[in-house]
Write a structure and sequence with these properties.
single chain, mainly alpha, 0% strand
Length: 283
């Protein structure tokens, strides 16, 4: 028998021959063969693909349905506009807050105190509509839209100050007071949101103040004679009433803010023109 080292050398020398033979025969032993999938397998694959697609669509729909409000808040924080994505399905058709939330259920002594009899009378006379108000979400007193809306009340301040400076402190004071109370009402409306007794109380007080200014302006027009009222005042009054009417058609969110802002501007301008005309005739 050859010595052990010689056997080891002979074994190592034979290795390349064995490896070559292995590689040369590998394709015949291990080559992958393509086997077409059966009909049942293809059907299962298609069903799995359809299931995954539907699951992805449902997840996307669920995400937008549940997180839409959060997405709006994120955009509001980034842009500082308080606008966010516009939901055409929900926001465009719209509905009044009264139709959406129903008759107020918080008209009681805790909410209105000594004004409760008046609040009950308004609620009863209007079938619950009189003390309902628009939900202005997503606008708040801290968004650009909300702040711009509140700023339109300063038109009353400007008109009232001018009338008072010219000598009509009574009508000017009523116009000033209407602007202040309107600001408070809309601030609470933006701050507290829907179905809050604090907002209804501010709305009731706003009725008193705005009504007093409107009645006084109407008396001035009657005293002057309707035909002698400046045409500009008549046109402004008509535009103001139209805008107020549209607020009740689209009593929600941004459409309400738009039309009620126009109401503030045109009604303040009407009061200014009527008061100016009254002062000129009294001089």
């Amino acid at each position: 028998m050859p010595p052990r080292p010689l056997l080891i050398i002979l074994a190592l020398a034979a290795c390349p021959v064995d490896v070559a033979l292995a590689f040369s025969s590998a394709p015949h032993r291990h080559a992958a063969t393509f086997v077409p999938p059966s009909a049942s397998t293809a059907k299962r694959r298609r069903a799995h693909h359809v299931h995954q697609t539907r699951s992805s669509r449902q997840a996307t729909t669920h995400l937008f349905a549940n997180d839409g409000e959060e997405s709006e808040s994120e955009v509001d924080d980034e842009l500082g506009l308080g606008l966010g994505p516009f939901n055409w399905r929900q926001d465009l058709p719209g509905s009044s807050s009264f139709a959406k939330y129903g008759r107020p259920q918080d008209i009681n002594s805790d909410s209105f105190g000594p004004l409760l009899p008046i609040a009950e009378a308004v609620d009863e006379a209007t079938g619950g509509w009189g003390l309902s108000y628009a939900d202005l979400h997503p606008a708040t007193p801290r968004t650009t839209v909300g702040q711009a809306f509140l700023a339109t009340n300063f038109f009353y301040a400007a008109a009232g100050l001018w009338l008072g400076w010219k000598g009509d402190w009574f009508y000017g004071g009523l116009t000033e007071l209407a602007g202040i109370v309107s600001f408070v009402y809309h601030y609470t409306q933006l701050e507290f949101g829907k179905n809050r007794s604090e907002v209804r109380l501010a709305l009731l007080i706003d009725y008193f103040c705005a009504g007093s200014a409107l009645i006084t302006g109407g008396v001035y027009m009657i005293q002057a004679g309707i035909t002698s009222v400046p045409l500009e005042a008549v046109v402004a009054a008509g535009g103001a009433m139209l805008s107020l009417s549209l607020c009740w058609v689209w009593e929600f969110g941004y459409p309400y803010i738009l039309w009620h802002s126009v109401w503030h501007i045109l009604s303040a301008y009407t009061g200014f023109l009527v008061g100016q005309d009254h002062l000129s005739k009294m001089a």
